[in-house]
């Protein structure tokens, strides 16, 4: 009797082991299926990812249209569908369009040079008239200036600074309302004046070329007006607003309302 129960018990264990073995085989087959499925989906998704990356590489790079939300420093911006160009951002959305501080850059430049811009964004420079037109024609812009001389510091802001296109000879179309500190509005007489350089006199009524004799390009009215931030650096006849002989100047623009 004991031998019978022992035999039955052994057979039961064998059946149990066989069942467990079949279960393990089933689990192994299931794992193998999961592995193959995972590898398939990984290969498929990798292919899709590569296709997306190839497509992204063919798309044009998107550039900001201003310095808003950009850090201080040199960045590329793009206006409408024009070519991207570099600008110097000065925090809080400001684009510097003119900077002078040590006299290293000659501002007695030709018409073409003023249109295209000149100088070094890491040093002294003038942002080209064409670029100024593109930026200020996109939206309303403020213009802030800061000047220094042996007399101290002068600052001011205009709330609607706009430059015309090439056909207008880059007329100073608008400056808006003036908010000044220490000095009065010395750009007012220059509104609606075309830009003039030593080789392109656009001053009304064939008045003498105020940019001659190394005075630099500016929006000169008749009798040359009350200001010229591109005049020779550090001389008695230099940077004018309304005093002469300024030692530094900076002009920067930003979309109005910020």
UniProtKB/TrEMBL annotation:
> Per the database record, which ranges form the Fibrinogen C-terminal domain?
58-258
User: Do you know which PROSITE patterns this protein is assigned to?
Assistant: FIBRINOGEN_C_2
**Would you tell me the protein name for this molecule?**
Ficolin-1-like
Q: Which SUPFAM superfamilies match?
A: Fibrinogen C-terminal domain-like
Gene name of the record: LOC127565332
Gene Ontology, cellular component aspect: extracellular space
Q: Where are the transmembrane segments?
A: none
Gene3D superfamilies noted in UniProt:
Gamma Fibrinogen, chain A, domain 1 (3.90.215.10)
The domain of life for this entry's organism is Eukaryota
One Pfam family matching this protein: Fibrinogen_C
């Amino acid at each position: 009797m004991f031998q019978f129960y022992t035999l039955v018990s052994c057979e039961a264990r064998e059946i149990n082991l066989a069942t467990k073995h079949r279960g393990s085989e089933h689990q192994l087959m299931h794992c193998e299926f999961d592995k193959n499925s995972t590898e398939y989906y990984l290969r498929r998704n990798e292919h899709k990812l590569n296709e997306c990356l190839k497509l992204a590489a063919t798309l044009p790079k998107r550039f900001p249209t201003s310095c808003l939300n950009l850090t201080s420093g040199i960045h590329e911006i793009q206006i409408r569908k024009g070519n991207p160009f570099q600008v110097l951002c000065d925090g809080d959305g400001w684009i510097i369009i003119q900077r002078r501080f040590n006299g290293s850059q000659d501002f007695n430049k030709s018409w073409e040079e003023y249109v295209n811009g000149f100088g070094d964004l890491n040093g002294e420079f003038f942002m080209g008239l064409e670029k100024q037109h593109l930026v200020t024609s996109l939206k309303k812009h403020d213009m802030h200036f800061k000047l220094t001389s042996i007399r101290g510091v002068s600052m001011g802001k205009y709330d609607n600074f706009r430059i015309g296109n090439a056909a207008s000879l880059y007329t100073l179309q608008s400056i808006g309302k003036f908010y000044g500190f220490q000095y009065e509005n010395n750009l007012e007489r220059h509104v609606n004046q075309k830009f003039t350089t030593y080789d392109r006199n656009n001053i009304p009524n064939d008045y003498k070329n105020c940019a001659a004799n190394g005075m630099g390009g500016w929006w000169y009215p008749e009798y040359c007006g009350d200001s010229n931030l591109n005049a020779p650096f550090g001389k008695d006849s230099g940077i004018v607003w309304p005093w002469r002989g300024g030692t530094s100047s900076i002009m920067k623009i930003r979309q109005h309302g910020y």
